[in-house]
């Protein structure tokens, strides 16, 4: 669903262990009519270097408290986040878009309940569905709107998820190259990766 408006609400200096970024905060006001969406959605953009000289490397990363903060080995989120920040720094320019979509959009508490069900033998999709959710409740329209706000018409998208590519194209941002976000598997999340590949169509080799 398109947004009624997207606005930048913050723009600050942001030095990190990987390199020097600007951190930008964005809010998107959704159009009425979709009860599954929050009225206001937010995302953060970490921007490094000249993003207009050529299609920049872009990573759309969904919030994962357990992985990003606690370095959980139940998923590949932490390693993908660090891979993207490292690649952007290595190239000297790029954008990391960080969306507040914990647990593929179901929220933190529901995600922890899904963990419990996975401990009982369900895979990540089965757990979400048993809780009454879709396999993936995320939306990627806001990142496309942010890129257009930043006057970035084309990107090299770092992802294994074809839905992100389709969302960018549908949102008016051309994906000129897909850059793999695959990371080495761990025994603790091998089944998780297999489920994403076999049941969700992620491009994991």
Automatic annotation (TrEMBL):
Cellular component GO terms held in the UniProt record: cytosol
Binding site for Zn(2+): 64, 75, 77
Positions of the catalytic residues: 136, 138
Co-factor: note: Binds 1 zinc ion per subunit.
Cofactors: Zn(2+)
Catalytic reaction(s) noted: GTP + 4 H2O = 2,5-diamino-6-hydroxy-4-(5-phosphoribosylamino)-pyrimidine + formate + 2 phosphate + 3 H(+)
Pfam families with a match to the protein in the record: GTP_cyclohydro2
GO molecular function, one term: zinc ion binding
Protein name, UniProt field: GTP cyclohydrolase-2
Species of the source: Granulicella mallensis
